[in-house]
Amino acid sequence: MPSQAPGPVDPARLREVLDGSWAEVRKAHRDHLDTRFLPVYGETGDQARERITRLLTQLPVELGVASAFPTEYGGRSDVGGSIVASEMLAQVDMSLMVKAGVQWGLFGGAVMALGTRRHHDAHLRDIIAARTFGCFAMTETGHGSDVQQLRTTCTYDPQTQTFDLHTPHEAARKDYIGNAARDGRMAVVFAQLTTRGRRHGVHAWLVPIRDAQGNPMPGVTIGDAGPKAGLLGVDNGRLTFDHVRVPRDMLLDRYGQVAPDGTYSSPIENDSRRFFTMLGTLVRGRVSVGGAASAATKSALTIAVRYGDIRRQFSAPDTDREVPLNDYLAHQRKLLPALATTYALHFAQAELVAALSAVQGGDGPLDEHRQRELESRAAGLKAAQTWHATRTIQMCREACGGAGYLAENRLPSLKADTDVFTTFEGDNTVLLQLVAKGLLTGYRDGFGSLDGWGRASFVAEQVREMVLERTAARSVIQQLVSAVPGRDDEVAVTDRGWQLKAFEDRENHLLDGAIRRLRNGATVKKDRPFDIFNDVQDHVLTVATAHTDRVTLEAFVAAIESTADPAVQALLSRVCDLYALSVIEANKGWFLEHARLTPARSKAITAVVNDLLKELRPEMRTLVDGFAVPDTWLHCAMLREEPGRQEAMAAEDGAAAAQAVPA
Amino acid sequence: MPSQAPGPVDPARLREVLDGSWAEVRKAHRDHLDTRFLPVYGETGDQARERITRLLTQLPVELGVASAFPTEYGGRSDVGGSIVASEMLAQVDMSLMVKAGVQWGLFGGAVMALGTRRHHDAHLRDIIAARTFGCFAMTETGHGSDVQQLRTTCTYDPQTQTFDLHTPHEAARKDYIGNAARDGRMAVVFAQLTTRGRRHGVHAWLVPIRDAQGNPMPGVTIGDAGPKAGLLGVDNGRLTFDHVRVPRDMLLDRYGQVAPDGTYSSPIENDSRRFFTMLGTLVRGRVSVGGAASAATKSALTIAVRYGDIRRQFSAPDTDREVPLNDYLAHQRKLLPALATTYALHFAQAELVAALSAVQGGDGPLDEHRQRELESRAAGLKAAQTWHATRTIQMCREACGGAGYLAENRLPSLKADTDVFTTFEGDNTVLLQLVAKGLLTGYRDGFGSLDGWGRASFVAEQVREMVLERTAARSVIQQLVSAVPGRDDEVAVTDRGWQLKAFEDRENHLLDGAIRRLRNGATVKKDRPFDIFNDVQDHVLTVATAHTDRVTLEAFVAAIESTADPAVQALLSRVCDLYALSVIEANKGWFLEHARLTPARSKAITAVVNDLLKELRPEMRTLVDGFAVPDTWLHCAMLREEPGRQEAMAAEDGAAAAQAVPA
User: Which pLDDT score is estimated for B144?
Assistant: First the structure.
């Protein structure tokens, strides 16, 4: 592990490391998406929707947003490329990314994953070419997180060989559905399948919702979700079905078939397991959202860091030269740990995309264990990245003062557009429960369930047998950890092995504690089964966070290990120190409570973090330049070289000199 | 201190305690401000500006928003009433509150505080009646926090007996100025006064910026700040002056006069001291913003708590009845500590408004020490309340899932409109430095300075002599603290005296440490004067936070002490426990590092907090009902009793029963 001070780093070398495996997809987007694709500030909702729909049809498909589809339909059979493409779109305009995600990821992805060849042949080419706009109609007004309990019904009638799709009451209407309010012609609708008097759980149908003239189909009522906090360009709407007749062959029947006589069959017998297998193929949406959140975070940090270099306020003592904001410790304390975390999450996301590509990219049967692990990783990182985005963009907005509140400086739309990410494609708190449940059960069973622990009472009786699964560069990390002597206190807090061990130790101890508490609870709270889980819910969520922290640090360490350029490697190593120590500092209460840190060592960590801030201050600009967000994409008035701005700066210096002789 | 479990509480009794001294102002607003005054979701910027301007002229002045003005001009000489009125407006529509704050607080307030009788006689009646709209033109593009360094110049010419008001370069233009883009006819403009070749620092002039037809006056260029994250109804703009002639008598000359021949005189000799005296009279704006932030926080919590009671997700084990969100520990962990902090800040704000009323309400000369203390309190509480609002409204938005992202459910506008509060009327980080500096110097000198520590190098050489000033109910608090035995560990963490002592101890220890580090720095960093302060900036900001926490807890304790209704008192006492222990839990790293908590006791605090959450769960609705936000003011679609919603709920129950027999 390099430990020398970082030498001068060429941002282009840093960019290469960050761009990683799908560098050409990133480059193609940077080269081709010009100012036409940028957000327009202050437009109305109607204008935004019109513009985004138009841009979606103009988006060159060869950039890669539809590349997850098989080559035979016009895709590239490249799952990873589609995720990276969507991350790049997110950096240009988040409405565009979400609209694309609805069309190609959710709608097209569902037709692909849940349908069979006849659906693919009939629809995929039109979907890829954005000739057919579609919706992913899963969420209902009354059920978002608990999708297994959806209330929409779809009942097979062998006489007519059609399904009867129905919304039984207002809470069962489909809600927040992208593409519904304006553009959608079809929808993948999730509903409870009943045939021959028996229910078989949630399935999906391909349902026309508008005719060629754009009028709602008979029995379909379409509403508009109305103005939102952000994402004005996405036409979210509401769908209600009044006994709509759906032909038998519109059931997306990869995981469940209904014969003409109504006989049900499925390759997966258990309703719940089938449901989570169906959901599992849709993990890509979650990975995309995490990547999009990080893309927006990078834009916000680039703006705040560049502004903090040119914005000066208050004079230094004994001089009239005003101090750039980035020179203040308090400003560094805001920006640099967030920047370090963004780097860490970038590498964790890159590793996740590679894993997704490996697990889902091939044609062979899915490895269920690896798929479960992938879902867990995606859930944890989606939560981490979207919360980090919410916090960091907010902080960047504040770090730019009043200027950060003006639409022309981009930060307001970055904040408003990403705000929904913490609760869509899985509410973050529910996702962390899913992660925790996977850890508690060792991915063995029922793991995919999004339930609120209610139906998970088996957990408490289980023995944890799972070995801590290392994520990347296993042997290197093992070596680093093993090299730490028994007496931790004698190791520098910048020792990578010690940091890794601290993260791992925290995760393990928290997990063991949660299991112990659940077991004890199962004994003493037999008559209050809800309380068994609810009483430790905060603890259990912390397990999931600690796990995600560990996975993230390991990905960062692995990325540093495989970096060839020594200057870049040295810089990344310092950034990794800052990330690791920021996490430990933020959780020092836990480390002290559990005697993992002495008070003296805990205080020392704060001092080391401050030293790192000082050391990294000159690299702030390089670190954001490494993200390689094109200047035009920042779309930020205060960073543009306007006519007169140079003169103003020069005049400022003159004024500073003049004021040296006040009355 | 009451320690029994809270009995049933009548929300009306709770409301009385919260409404406090200006209850009739609150009641008048609740009674008179009907749906006409509510925000309109999804309107354009132009529509919002037109509507808010119209409402401002329709706002019954007798409600109290202009009551700080003297009775002879149509006010009520009631400073406190005007602050409370503005808090109530904030709960109806934040644009309306900010526009009112610009018109009556900043613009009218500056004419009142900085002008003299001839200005008052000529303008106050028209200002109060909203016949003359005006701006407060202080901030410039290049200088916001460091207003002492404004670049706009105003130079006296004895020949014409006029001032020459000039914007020397782009960075000196007035920016973010409310009422400028559309409505303002006049502006109080802050600029550097020069007369007879000597500069005398920042002064203010009353300057016409538009003629009767609404066209800019000669030499005045007016720009529009354009779309913002929120506050669409406020017409923020930019003003540039090209050698504008301003008559001599338009100088607001209470603190500095220029004779016809250009001779300058002032009752306050020192430029800097005069400047901060001028600013000091404007502390009301800061108090209003803090109150407005809390008002929005109360609305957001009311929405989230009420939604959390009706929104159910996931079934409890062994039942098909779904669980209300508020029953989940993780949800309580989000909402209840925020609710407790909102209560604490409410009482701190009430105490601050009373102090403001006492210090500035009379006709006598200002007590400078009390004024300084007031400014410090206002600065700390403004920062605490606005950051709490930003965090809490964000959390409430997330706690309501996708519904929280829809404009129709109010949370998006609450978030967007309050977002600027953390950086306007004083950037929070700069304000905390001001608080810290007051503590370090014991309010003795130069305290009001907003500088970045640069000119404060005297601090390090000073001996701290200040006695910890208790805020309220001094003797009671002293008794509680004194009653804590020497061995803290033996006292329950719910002991109020122990809690008070912990807060006080933390503040003192942090303050002593900061002084020690500054002194040491002054010795060893003589050649790097900037670093002396910058290296401890994080520590110093923590001092200010700890101080504000202590002030807030003491206000809460004093309020409980003076509550007559025993059931209300018992409930508030539990809420106070939750506030105090949440703060200690959030800072447990510090308490452990400094041996103020043993590891075992630290862990116990987390358990006690969880117990308090369980105990307060049944009181959540009562606690938000105590805020008494009228149902119509919430303006939240998902909480309205729409036709069909009751049936939907009933149908839900039916569905839950039906699904008990799946295939």
Answer: 86
pLDDT tens digits along A592-617: 999 999 999 999 999 999 999 999 99
Choose among A200, A329, A589: nearest Cβ to B534.
Answer: A329
Of the pLDDT bands very low, low, confident and very high (cuts 50, 70, 90), residue B272 is: confident
Distance from CA of A262 to the nearest CA of B (A): 14
Q: Which sign, positive or negative, has the C-alpha torsion B389, B395, B398, B399?
A: negative
User: How close B170 gets to chain A, by Cα (Å)?
Assistant: 6
Residues 208-247 of A with CB under 8 A from B: 225-230
Q: Are B38 and B92 spatial neighbours (Cβ–Cβ below 8 Å)?
A: yes
- Cross-chain residue pair B423–A402, CB shorter than 8 Å: yes
B660 close contact with A: CB closer than 8 A: no
Q: How many residues does chain A have?
A: 663
Nearest CA in chain B to A139: B402
Distance from CA of B530 to the nearest CA of A (A): 6
Nearest to A35 by CA among A625, A645, A631: A631
User: Cα–Cα distance between A525 and A58 in angstroms, integer?
Assistant: 60
Partner-chain contact A401 B416, CB within 8 Å: no
Please give the pLDDT value at position B454. Answer: 40
Q: Is the pLDDT of residue B459 over 50?
A: no
* A602 and B CB contact within 8 Å: yes
Position B242, amino acid:
D
Structure tokens at B211: 């003629």
pLDDT, position A523: 87
CA–CA separation, B561 vs B546, rounded Å? 23
Q: What is the crossing angle of helices A368-399 and A537-561, to 10°?
A: 90
pLDDT, one tens digit per residue, over A232-270 is: 999 999 999 999 999 999 999 999 999 999 999 999 998
pLDDT digits (tens, 9 = 90+) for B532-572: 999 999 999 999 999 999 999 999 999 999 999 999 999 99
A365 and A393 in contact (C-beta within 8 Å)?
no
The Cα of A139 is separated from the nearest Cα of chain B by a number of Å equal to: 10
Chain B residues closer than 8 Å to A592 by CB: 588-589, 592-593, 599, 602
Window B:56-85, CB contacts with A under 8 Å: none
Q: What is the mean pLDDT of residues B439-457?
A: 50
* A561 belongs to the catalytic site: no
Report chain A's C-alpha Rg in angstroms.
26
pLDDT of B369 reads 81
Q: What is the pLDDT of residues B504-530, one digit of tens each?
A: 999 999 999 999 999 898 889 888 889
- In this predicted structure, what is the pLDDT of residue A272? 85
Closest C-alpha among B219, B171, B271, B189 to residue A655: B171
Measured between beta carbons, the chain A residues lying within 8 angstroms of B293 are: none
What per-residue confidence (pLDDT) applies to B473? 64
Inter-chain CB proximity B402 and A176 less than 8 Å = yes
Spatial CB neighbours of B29, under 8 Å, sequence gap ≥ 6: B63, B64, B85, B88, B89, B92
Q: What's the average model confidence in pLDDT over A157-172?
A: 97
Q: Which residues contact residue A235 at a Cβ distance below 8 angstroms, ignoring those fewer than 6 apart?
A: A49, A53, A178, A179, A180, A181, A182, A183, A224
Q: Which residue of B has its CA nearest to A45?
A: B42
Find the closest chain A residue to B148 by CA distance. Answer: A314
Q: B219-249 burial by CB neighbour count: b if 16+ within 10 A, else e? A: bbebbebbbbbbbbbbbbbbbbbeebebebe
Question: Which chain B residues touch A411 with a CB distance below 8 Å?
Answer: 229
By residue count, chain B amounts to 663
Q: How far apart are CA B308 and CA B396, in angstroms?
A: 10
**CB A593 to CB B592 under 8 A?**
yes
Question: Cα B610 to the chain's mean position, in Å?
Answer: 30
